[in-house]
TrEMBL record:
Name of the protein this chain belongs to: DUF58 domain-containing protein
Domain DUF58 residues, every copy: 54-275
Record organism: Marinobacter guineae
Region (Disordered): 28-47
Highest taxon in the source lineage: Bacteria
InterPro entries for the chain: DUF58, vWFA_dom_sf
Length: 313
């Protein structure tokens, strides 16, 4: 039986220990991979090759393999990706620890999974020689750490992840007039912090999207490689067929009867509506999205999402 505290919250020592999981993901691939793209050569300088710089209108002579088909379809005109030599690439981790993530019906709370995913990615980025930074936000606080290539920076980010998790409904924002630090606010801040060509991971349950979320994601993705890691709980997708259940909320438990057909219908309609909005958000912004369940081991989930040898590029 897992310890309750370990399921609902995760502390700094446990986040530090996740570097062992990150090391397992970083095992080198069996043989080196060589790029077939014309113009890429080995460089004596430190780096991994070419990094995305920007998208512009297609011009005669551009390599058709560099056409950005998403942007081309969206703007109804051919656009091509431009690259520049990549050295130290900033990796920015946006981690949502808001009130909706203080929940799980299986495994660990969504806020725990978000913190674990961010921690593993931070260790991977550090060992790849990248600069690591983060934006951690909950229902009340938003903390910004600019990318840096130091272990001390990763430890500071992990400390923020441990500190900003909610521990009970009493920890939810209670101050009058205090505006919540939500996803859109974090995305706006990321535009200010991120350098062109950054690798950005947005880790959230994406339950609080707005009409602006897709625009903000799209603006980030225009000059950076952006991935969305969506943490979900099975109960959010499919309710039990029968039984009375309680869900914790800031004002106490909320009971529902799963056998009530009207409740089931309203629930499925709400889920379908949100799923449609979210898929539109990801599609129009051109952001790559993946899902991680609260019942999954985050390292195992990341293994299927990352490139060969644990690369996050």
């Amino acid at each position: 039986m897992p310890n309750t505290d370990a399921v609902t919250n995760i502390g700094l020592p446990d986040l530090i220990r996740l570097q062992a999981d990150a090391r397992a993901l970083k095992l080198p691939s069996a043989r080196p991979v060589r790029s077939r793209q014309a113009g890429l050569q080995r460089s004596p300088q430190r780096g991994r090759g070419m990094a995305f710089a920007e998208v512009r209108l297609y011009q005669p002579g551009d390599d058709i393999r560099s056409i950005d088909w998403r942007v081309t379809a969206r703007r109804q005109a051919p656009h091509t990706k431009l690259y520049e030599e990549e050295r130290e690439r900033p990796v920015l981790l946006l981690c949502d620890l808001g009130p909706s993530l203080f929940f799980a019906s299986t495994g660990a709370f969504k806020q725990v999974r978000c913190a674990q995913l961010a921690s593993i990615l931070a260790w991977l980025a550090l060992w790849s020689g990248d600069q690591v930074g983060g934006i951690v936000f909950n229902g009340e606080t938003l903390s910004v750490q600019r990318p840096a290539r130091r272990k001390k920076s990763v430890l500071r980010l992990l400390d923020t992840l441990a500190e900003q998790q909610h521990r009970s409904s009493r920890d939810l924002p209670q101050k009058e007039g205090a505006g919540p630090a939500r996803l859109d606010t974090a995305l706006t801040e990321a535009r200010r912090v991120a350098h062109t060509g950054s690798r950005i991971f947005v880790i959230s349950d994406f339950l609080e999207i707005s009409p602006e979320t897709g625009k903000l994601l799209g603006a980030l993705a225009r000059h950076n490689a952006v991935s969305a890691l969506r943490v979900v709980d099975p109960l959010e997708k499919e309710l039990p067929k029968a039984g009375r259940f309680a869900v914790a909320g800031p004002d106490g438990p909320v009971w529902f009867d799963a056998a009530n057909p009207r409740f089931q219908r309203a629930w499925h309609e709400k889920v379908a509506h949100h799923e449609g909005q979210l898929q539109d958000c990801f599609r129009t912004s051109g952001v790559i999205a993946a899902t991680v369940s609260t019942g999954e081991d985050p390292a195992v989930a990341l293994k299927s999402l990352l490139g060969p040898g644990g690369r996050i590029g």
